Inverse folding.
């Protein structure tokens, strides 16, 4: 009987041990699987390019140099712009001269000549008037025919018209150009000034300055090379505007919400722990990460781009550095 009781206790203990082991194995099997998600640091990058084509004359900043906003980076050489400026200045001078001529009016000699022609025409009117009156009296007496009277009258009217035209020419010379002509001349001046200012604005573009403070990361052409309009010459990265980018499957997004803070490890900084805050979440439409979600069915799980910015300043953090954090699949 004692042996049976002892065997029963041993069996019961063994059963309990087996149940405990099964329970522990079940916990281990059902425990959420931790996944290491890897991302990298990114920063705002500006590409420097010119509005006008030209040849690289001089670089004032090399790769790796820290620059400030407004610093001169590149000087281009463009002889074509210098020639265009000379042409524009010549056109402006011609327009200015034309405008002065319109304002000043005709020369004194021209005005005097027009006045003398008017006076000459008045003398012709006086003579033709006397001839017409004389012929009219003779016609009244029946001495000359009507044709002679009509000829004299026509000559008189022609002389009056000639005198009127001469007076108009004199008035025009004396008063100068019409208001419309003056306005047209002034418009030509404004147009020429606009052309000069346009060329000058392009000339300013042969000296390229930095729009931000940052570090020169890459210089593309060599000194002496020809670059076209809009061609990138160098890149500047703003190290004060830096963030981490992660590509995360949507089934791992449960704990990542806009505004949430979490911690990442940066191996390049001796595994420094950095606190970051989620500022951007967007689906990547270009591809999806395939994953079997059930044993009886499958569907595509999309990948989302998640950006998180450090909540504080991280010394020596640079674009391209890896960042790691753990997420679990439930």
């Amino acid at each position: 009987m004692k042996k049976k009781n002892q065997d029963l206790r041993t069996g019961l203990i063994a059963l309990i041990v087996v149940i405990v082991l099964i329970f522990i194995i079940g916990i281990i099997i059902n425990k959420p699987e931790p996944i290491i998600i890897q991302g990298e640091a990114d920063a705002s990058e500006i590409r420097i390019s010119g509005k006008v084509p030209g040849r690289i004359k001089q670089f004032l900043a090399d790769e790796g140099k820290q620059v400030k906003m407004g610093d001169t980076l590149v000087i281009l050489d463009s002889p074509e712009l210098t020639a265009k400026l000379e042409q524009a200045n010549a056109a402006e001078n011609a327009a200015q001269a034309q405008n002065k001529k319109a304002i000043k009016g005709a020369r004194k000699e021209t005005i005097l000549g027009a006045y003398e022609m008017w006076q000459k025409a008045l003398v012709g009117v006086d003579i033709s008037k006397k001839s017409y009156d004389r012929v009219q009296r003779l016609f009244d007496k029946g001495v000359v025919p009507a044709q002679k009277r009509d000829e004299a009258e026509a000559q008189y009217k022609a002389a009056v018209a000639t005198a009127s035209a001469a007076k108009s020419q004199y008035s025009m010379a004396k008063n100068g150009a019409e208001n419309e002509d003056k306005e047209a001349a002034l418009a030509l001046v404004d147009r020429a000034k606009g052309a000069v200012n346009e060329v000058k604005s392009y000339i300013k573009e042969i000296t390229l300055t930095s729009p931000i403070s940052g570090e020169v990361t890459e210089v593309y052409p060599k000194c002496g090379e020809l670059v076209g309009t809009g061609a990138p010459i160098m890149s500047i990265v703003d190290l004060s505007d830096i963030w981490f980018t992660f590509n995360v499957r949507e089934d791992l997004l449960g704990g990542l919400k806009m505004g949430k803070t979490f911690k990442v490890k940066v191996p390049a900084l001796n595994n420094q722990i950095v606190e970051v805050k989620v500022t951007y979440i967007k689906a990547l439409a270009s591809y999806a990460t395939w994953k079997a979600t059930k044993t009886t069915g499958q569907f595509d799980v999309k990948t989302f781009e998640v950006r998180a910015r450090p909540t504080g300043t991280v010394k020596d953090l640079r674009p391209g550095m890896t960042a790691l954090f753990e997420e679990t699949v439930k």
Summary: Residues 263 and 275 are 4 Å apart (CA to CA). The mean pLDDT is 80. The two ends are 51 Å apart (CA to CA). The chain has five helices and twelve strands.
